[in-house]
Structures are given as structure tokens and as C-alpha cells.
Specification:
Number of helices: 2
Structural class: alpha+beta
CATH superfamily: Lipid/polyisoprenoid-binding, YceI-like
Low-confidence stretches: 169-179
Oligomer: single chain
Amino acid sequence: MKKVFFFAALAVLALSSATILKPTIFKLDASKSTFKWTGKKVSGSHWGYVKFSDGTVSVDKGKVVGGTFNVDMTSISVEDTKGEWGKKLEGHLKADDFFGVDKSPKSTLVLKTVTPKGGNNFEVKAALTIKGITNEVTFPATITVAKTGVNATASFKIDRTKYGIKYGSGSFFDNLGDKAIDNDFMVEVSIAAAK
């Protein structure tokens, strides 16, 4: 009888531990999430969007503890310039000089740590993979967690040269003049995830 009670107690303890340790998973709503990019050069700038394909956010005790977001690089759009020039620029961004979407159709951001900074402000450290190359990025984010979903916004810079994208970079090529393109591009991300 004592053995039965002992094993029953162990089973209850194991189930309780599993319940406590298992985070709640929220799925990214790609239709309500946006990923805007802005690239600058000496003579001006361009901006557009890339679409999320899918993603998840892990929440434990009301706090974000992890997440993975996949971006469809084949969806790159240019919004400030339309017509023939806009199509040409989109094609160039998809080519091997830039994101090489034929070989690398997906980029991924994996959250590593989410540190509270007061209120809804957090510092996020994540692993960002572009063109098969992974680097750590750190950025501020505003995050709101509710029982039914998670919403977050963040703006940060990405150094494209760390991912092998060196086209038009003054750090690697001389005499570019007004054709030089900044190494950093800005991203503005808005995330909506629900159960």
C-alpha cells in the first residue's frame, strides 16, 4: 500500500511540475503583423515591407520567455518607388547581391532573453539569421501580454555586412560617391500573436 501511495505521489508531482514548467504558446497572426525596412544611401533612401510567414511566442507567468519568427524574404516590396524602377529595385534586393532569396527564402529571429526595463519596456537579445548567417542582435521592445494574446513593437538597426551583403558598402568598396549604401538598415516590427 505504501508503494502504491509513493508512486501515486510521484505521478502527481511529475504532472504538477510539467504544468508549471510548460509555457503558453501564442501563434503569430501574420495578417496583423508587419515588418517594415528602410535602407539609406548618400542620395536618399528607400523603404518597403517583408511579410512574416509564421511564428510563435512563449509566455510563462505573464512574461515572454521565448519566440521564433520566420520572414518570407521572397515577399520583399518597395513602397516609396513604383513602376519600372520599383520593380527593378525589388529584383535587385532579391538577387544574390542582396538577400539572394532563391537560395535563402527565409530569415529567422529567435528570442533568447527578454529583460524587463520598467512598465511594458524590455531589452531583447535574439539570434537573427539572414542568408544562412546567424548573429546576435539586441534591441528595445514594447511588449504587452494578455490572456488572449501578445502584442509587441520594436525598431532597430541591422548591419547587413554581417550577413554577407556588401554591395555598395563604403566599408568594402572605394570611389562609390553618391552610390554608396549605408551598412545599416532600419527595421520597424509590429507583432500580434494569439492562442
